[in-house]
Amino acid sequence: MAAKSHKALNTFLFENLTHKKGILHFISTRNGGVSPKPFNSLNISFNVSDDPKHVLQNRKLLANAVGFPLESLTTSKQVHKNKVAIVTPENRGKGSSDYQSAIDNSDALITRYPDILLFVHLADCVPILLYDPVQKVIGAVHAGWRGTVLNIVQNTVNSMTKTFRSDPKNIYAGIGPSIGPCCYEVGNEVINEAPKEFIITRDGKSYFDLWDANRKQLLNTGIPSANIELAGICTMENSDQFFSSRADHGVTGRFGAGIMIV
Questions:
Q1: How much of the chain, in percent, has pLDDT values that exceed 90?
Q2: Contact 101/249 with Cβ under 8 angstroms?
């Protein structure tokens, strides 16, 4: 994963998606916006206590910097479950300028239509971007611990296969910045539900490896290991660059991950 500078703000790009024609994608950071503390400064979520005017201005700054129309941004009301929404031209722009109009109760979005920016927002949860260059299908996934346990990314790939005839062997995936196994200490609620192979015990404490859990789900669908890129950037360790709910004690903004067929 490489950083890309856009004047006052930076984004990150997946190497394996950067070299694919026909798409635009990015991971935003927390810097370069207008929001005051504790949402400083490029908070892109309307679903925190930030002033909506600041959020809209931040989204405009991001859209202008990356090069997509704000009205193409399409997002959902994320609920930490495993529902996948199929986005059509009629859904384009839902959630772009307010929270109320966002697609209901979905943590993943897929589409085959151009000029629709699929967008998820995060602060420690895992962003996963998907692209099938053969069938021209994209996906954006928000995977927290609950969504990961409920196989959200596996469901997303299965939806791409069922709805748009994607072959997993043609899909490329990027697993973005999120809280890493270095820092994601968990208690019994997570330990009792998460697959044991992804729980790491260290110094008498337990940690959930969200990265490996989601990577394994991608492999289980048939996506080749060579097609999966892991950013390996922990948001808690890099909370100066990315919003981290754990580092900011639950009161913080959100960064975003987006992908669009152009």
A1: 96
A2: no
* Contact indicator for 177, 231 with CB cutoff of 8 Å: yes
Q: What is the CATH number of domain 2-179+223-261?
A: 3.60.140.10
- Which residues on adjacent β-strands are paired with residue 6? 9
Question: Which residue is listed with tokens 């239509």?
Answer: 113
pLDDT recorded at residue 229 = 97
How far are the Cα atoms of 11, 40, 182, 221, 243 from residue 240, in angstroms, in the given order?
14, 10, 17, 35, 8
pLDDT (tens digit per residue) in 56-115: 999 999 999 999 999 999 999 999 999 999 999 999 999 999 999 999 999 999 999 999
* Polymer length of the chain: 262
Sequence ranges of the domains in the chain: 2-179+223-261
Residue 41 · residue 57 · CB < 8 Å: no
- CA dist 174 → 10, 53, 63, 127, 140 (Å): 18, 31, 21, 8, 10
DSSP three-state, residue 71? helix
pTM to 2 decimal places: 0.97
- Round to whole Å and give the CA distance between 38 and 195: 34
